[in-house]
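ok trying this again, last paste got cut off
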Amino acid sequence: MQLTPQTSDMVRYLASSEIIDFENLDIQKTAMYLSKGIEDEIQLIKTVYGFVRDDISHSIDIGSNEVTYLASDVLKYKHGLCFANSHLLAAILRYLGVPTGFCYQKLEFEGKMGLHGLNAVFIESIDKWIRLDARGNENGINAQFSIDKEYLAYSPKEEKNEVDFGVICAEPDKRVVEILRHSRNLDEALDRIFDTNWLLK
């Protein structure tokens, strides 16, 4: 998969924001705890990724109807949709100085087309962007940290009109954020996420 950064300005992949709110003390404490004693860049990224993938649940997997989207809230409540979990992974890594962006896939779930969110991180020591999927390994999903070959939660299939978007966005998609922000519960958020009229082109 050819990955294309949205911008050459790497500072944008390190920025905090309302959503990627790594000024939050709990995010900072978590970042410092996870990075303690680690000097190797690749090991650091792998450790942080493993924490979000394994310790932060996917809301559907645990049957929660609560919607999270701020990175700090995802950490606080320990769950989120794929998009929300990608916000937390970005917040922790950006606080630790690792450029991190956002990628998307258009996938079919139970006969409906919907959007899936994941991350891309830049590994300076090998001058390479790689994608990481922190959705959570439940129900047969086996996403892994890998430098050479991608092991993501999902592999889009052309015959099903699924799409793998190769752009690495510097900020979360605004439409996704607005859906999460204004949905009263998870069911409402999912109904809107599976509305093909707005999906990324």
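PB: full thing came through this time. The chain has a mean pLDDT of 95.
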